[in-house]
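pipeline/complex-builder :: batch 7 item 3
reading input block
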Amino acid sequence: MNVFRVNQPGIFTTIQDLGRFGYENQGVPVAGAMDEFAFRVANILVGNNENTPALEITLLGPTLEVLEDTIVAVTGAKMTPFVNGMKRDCWSSFPLRKGDILSFDYPSSGARAYLSVAGGFLGEFALGSYSTYTRGKIGGIRGRRLEKGDILSCRFPLQFPKTQIVPNELIPVYLSEEEVRVIIGPQHDYFSHEAIEKFLNSIFTITKDSDRMGYKLDGPEIRATGKHDIITDGLVPGAIQVPSNGQPIIMMKDAQTTGGYAKIAVTITADLSKLAQLKPGDRVRFKSVDIKEAYKALKDQERVLKEIYLHLRPIKFYNLKINGRSFEVSISQI
Amino acid sequence: MYEKPRILMCGDKAIVVEYGNEISEGCNKQIISLYRFLVREKVNGIVSLIPTYRSLLIKFEPTQISFQQLEDILSRFNPKEIEKDFNPLVIEIPVAYGEEFGPDLQYVAEFHSLTNEEVIQIHTEPLYRIYMLGFIIGFAYLGNMSEKIATPRLDKPRTIIPAGSVGIAGAQTGIYPLDSPGGWRLIGKTPVRLYDPQRERPILFQAGDYVRFKPISREEFFEIEEEVKKGSFQVRTYPYS
């Protein structure tokens, strides 16, 4: 079922799922949604399985023409969706009718929004995932970002789900300066105690050279005691490499699977979503935690997700005609 | 190589089992053995494995397997037992050298005061061990290239290098599996697709196997290229002994 025609693609809009696992031994990056939390909620809102392909929208949203009646949801960055120019809520699902135009506002906070559709987007399935990995030209739409004129299809939803909204208190707040928790290592012995302290007590700015592969940071120089190069070993998203210019790089979802710079620390999994919502010019501080705190943070995140499942509020949309003019009205339960 | 491998935390969902701080066949063999052991054991909770020159990165799901359980499994590994039933393959990669396939062959030859033919002969002589894959999909880090043809990278990298190009960078050699930018000196090209997402086995190489480059003529290149397009070309492989 064709659901959208892409009138404007936005800057960088791709189809993503939760990632590509089990091929890292052959040099295939994980890819997948940068903000897994927002991505999962987008799917929950339209009644999909959490790992269903959705659109990841970066900074500037697309303009989509609706080809079939459907239900969608928008989560992540505060990038207000508009249907025929009328505002809809973020972190909520809403109906679309054939002929509608869906567009987005500039993000007032955060960097990446997720658009899910009831039934899920169809895309190229490659090496166990639908995720678009643009450098490897696989997944999504022929391995590339959305282009003007693309037709996006979805599976038929078994039945149209209810429209619902996440209560305000469960919606994450994205700041332009975030504290990100890390576990020191695996190559912390390449750095002196002072260098690690400097890393943990400084503020770094995300530079323009940042994308799904990695965030290059600008800040005080972090120097290794000896060489910065290591004999190449494995990388995970969230790993923080320090090359010889002393400016750390945080590896993100499209990161290559191996790397040759010493890794001073690795971001805890629960804070990867926070990182995903930072944009060039935003700032980041690092806080060292132990594995126990990392697992507690993961559990807390899962608990919030369960809360969201339990506390989704119905929201209903009505068409009203008053003096011949038509209005769309939404009513949600408090 | 260390006497006993080091286990390092790599965030909250991965550990690195580090065998040494060197590029050596002995070290890499241990890693490949451990990698194969874990693949065979099909450990519930292990998500991915990344073998490299000197370490094995193990990604795991902490809700399914604990750090302690992982350590227990690692302690069960006896490398000697594994080596017996480990039969690496040699994969023969046909390469057309020089001309439009390898625009830098002449430069490499002149750099070392050799003839083009001598460079080809030196390059095709060794069996290259696949130490690891990384950098881009299907890119193999090969060991054993002769220092006699080691050549520095280009000062200014090319913006596009076609998939299949065989290059030299310092004492390394390798094949680009995808069109990509790069600074390696290109000496030849293979018509074989190292990476094809439509294929049953999308990535041809795996760490622990060996590569042999076989020189082919211009005509053979185009013949094989046609067969590859039709899907009828079979890469020649044979056991390593």
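note: Chain A touches chain B at residues 21-28, 126-127, 135-138, 183, 185-186, 230-236, 238-239, 256-259, 263, 266-269, 291, 294-295, 298 (CB under 8 Å).
queue -> next item
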